[in-house]
Design goal:
Length: 326
């Protein structure tokens, strides 16, 4: 079902305003959902907005609090605020610190998640920094290699690298399939791909309902399992995130931004990155491949094409569910 972007924007901003958000905050949140849709990332798009809008108000939320700040460090208690609001407030400061000192880190806990860590890794790259963003997935979803129990979060990682052309942006979960895709598959009444999820008894399943009661497998088997574990330590264990403590938001986030000009002039670095990218793109293509894309390139091109239109094509049920929030 086609809906004009301006119509959807007006609808979503009205819903967010009704729930007490300032216009600037509401716009930041809407723009992230829109960005996901424009990039073809349906699993992070407006299908989640009805759930988000329905539970948005958190009467215990207060202003985010800086626990510790130094020349190249920020440690933030999100105070149960929304990830988009907290990060749009503090990531620019992290960028400034990284540019001043060459490298800077930020840890955030007790904050509800934003949609995509790639949003902030891209911000780093667009400011000529290399950015690493690690997220705790919020609840156990991944069965570590050799186990059938969901122990680890899907624990996304994003990396942004400046380039002469479009920035390189890696944005991925450590699971074979993102939880958002599992939920979207269930909503649309479809089946999951083979060999990405298991049911509660450890048997492979393509049924998203069974998968949500079971576990998702890590990508790359023991490699993805190891990466998910490391990210969990850096984003959950390090911040003492307790998923059973309902007085706090059960998420942890860790950012590392650094300036590659520490090692070589930024234009030289970007030129070298560009040479490597061109070598990959100009290499011989596998059978059936029309174009080779580097991470972040395809989604940016999809976004630019979609921006030429003034509408989105969403499932009718998703639009109805958003309207029901008014």
């Amino acid at each position: 079902m086609k809906i004009k972007i301006e119509e959807l924007k007006k609808l979503c901003l009205s819903i967010l305003a009704k729930r007490g958000l300032l216009e600037k905050e509401a716009l930041e949140i809407f723009n992230e959902y829109l960005d996901a849709e424009l990039r073809g990332r349906e699993c992070h798009g407006f299908q989640f907005f009805p759930n988000f809008g329905a539970k948005l108000v958190d009467s215990t939320a207060r202003k985010p609090k800086i626990i510790r700040e130094e020349d190249n460090l920020l440690f933030i208690d999100g105070q149960k605020n929304l990830g988009q609001i907290v990060c749009n407030k503090y990531v620019p400061g992290l960028i400034k610190k990284a540019k001043n000192k060459g490298i800077a880190m930020m840890g955030i806990y007790n904050m509800h998640s934003y949609l995509m860590p790639g949003t902030y890794a891209r911000m780093a790259a667009e400011n000529n920094l290399v950015g690493f963003v690690f997220n705790y997935g919020g609840r156990p979803r991944i069965a570590p290699t050799g186990s059938i129990d969901p122990i680890l979060g899907t624990n996304p990682i994003a990396i942004g690298i400046p380039n002469d052309g479009l920035p390189i942006v890696v944005d991925m979960a450590t699971a074979k399939i993102a939880m958002g895709k599992v939920r979207l598959t269930e909503k649309l009444g479809r089946s999951l791909p083979e060999n990405v999820t298991i049911d509660k008894n450890g048997r492979p399943t393509t049924d998203p309902i069974e998968a949500m009661a079971g576990a998702i497998l890590p990508f790359g088997d023991h490699r993805g399992s190891a990466l998910a574990l490391v990210i969990e330590i850096l984003t959950k264990t390090m911040f003492n995130v307790d998923i059973h403590n309902k007085t706090k938001a059960n998420r942890g986030f860790f950012f590392i931004f650094f300036d590659p000009s520490i090692f070589q002039p930024i234009e030289e670095f970007k030129n070298n990155v560009s040479k490597l990218v061109k070598e990959i793109k100009n290499s011989r293509k596998a059978e059936g491949v029309i174009e080779i894309f580097y991470p972040g390139e395809k989604s940016e091109k999809i976004k630019r094409e979609n921006l030429k239109k003034d509408y989105l094509d969403l499932e009718e049920k998703i639009i109805e569910n958003i309207k029901n929030l008014l």
